Amino acid sequence: MKILHVETGQHLYGGAKQVSYLLAGLQQHGVESHLVCPIGSAIGRTVKESVAEVYEVPMRGDLDLGFIWRMRRIIRQVEPDLLHLHSRRGADLLGGIAGRWSGIRTVLSRRVDNPEPPAVVRLKYALYDRVIAISQGIADVLLEEGVAAEKLACVRSAVDVEAYQKSCDKSWFRAEFNLPEDTLVMATVAQLISRKGHRFLMQAMPRLIQRYPNLRWLIFGKGPLQEELRDEIVRRGLQSHVQLAGFRQDLAEIYPCLDLLVHPALMEGLGIALLQAASAGLPIVAVDAGGMPEVVEDGVNGRLVPGGSVEVLGDAVEQLLGDESLRREMGESGREKMRRSFSVEQMVEGNLAVYQGLLNTDNAT
């Protein structure tokens, strides 16, 4: 079996990280993988020659019509059995058109749960033979939008649980983020964009600080809201309690040193940061929306709250910060849940089953 994959992410996190897991896993199953990615991307450097043949091409987004012809040339060169499109930024629609014009079976992975206009849904999803939702929450959105159930498959994203089984280097951690010794530390790991909901936790911070004066909130990530968040921290006088910590490649070392992960996003397909944090044994406060309830079970490995509710969010965070034994218990439950339901092998086998189902249908006809 020969699969041509398309991933547009420049950095090796989120969807691109999932694709790297998939390519390595498919290699173990004897599948030949080829990858189309942006010039200079991290995933290209990571998988080149080891698990996939890499084709680096310009990718300029939804209006880059030349991408269709670039893809068609690669399809003719590779002659794959299937085309698997893993991301948006033009790769989904334009890649789907290239696949359709080339007469090749095409699979799309959908990683976000935001709705699309009905006219877009009708035209776009007609291009794909199968659509893989990375959570049941995303699958439900697609069903509501009119995508046929027989075209859908749910294959959840995965996490390498063992990569997050590290102990905390407390001296390094305190020095790295300038933290007093007795600090309670919670974190949010997300793009700095509006739908990630940082503003709701920001509004809850004065109350939380009053209850826990030694509380610190580390905000990991980057994005267009960085300056706005920085101004809000100053406006509220939170400089001693809230830190914009930027994008980090060493989260596996950071998670074990945290007391709590808070993810107040209004929308989330699944949430890779949630999988990572749970693997590291962290309790989580998240929103009861999208795919997040598939990762966080309320009262088991964290708390689920309504999106946008500052008061309920504050209550949940306050409860967990005040109970170390509960945090430890929930953290262990989360780690076991990751091993049980979100393993890399399960994700690889799920995608492979979709490929085999399509190819077997072709062979039967």
From TrEMBL:
<dbReference type="Pfam" id="PF00534">
    <property type="entry name" value="Glycos_transf_1"/>
</dbReference>
<dbReference type="Pfam" id="PF13439">
    <property type="entry name" value="Glyco_transf_4"/>
</dbReference>
<dbReference type="GO" id="GO:0016757">
    <property type="term" value="F:glycosyltransferase activity"/>
</dbReference>
<feature type="domain" description="Glycosyltransferase subfamily 4-like N-terminal">
    <location>
        <begin position="14"/>
        <end position="162"/>
    </location>
</feature>
<keyword id="KW-0808">Transferase</keyword>
<protein>
    <submittedName>
        <fullName>Glycosyl transferase</fullName>
    </submittedName>
</protein>
<feature type="domain" description="Glycosyl transferase family 1">
    <location>
        <begin position="173"/>
        <end position="336"/>
    </location>
</feature>
<dbReference type="InterPro" id="IPR028098">
    <property type="entry name" value="Glyco_trans_4-like_N"/>
</dbReference>
<dbReference type="GO" id="GO:1901135">
    <property type="term" value="P:carbohydrate derivative metabolic process"/>
</dbReference>
<dbReference type="InterPro" id="IPR001296">
    <property type="entry name" value="Glyco_trans_1"/>
</dbReference>
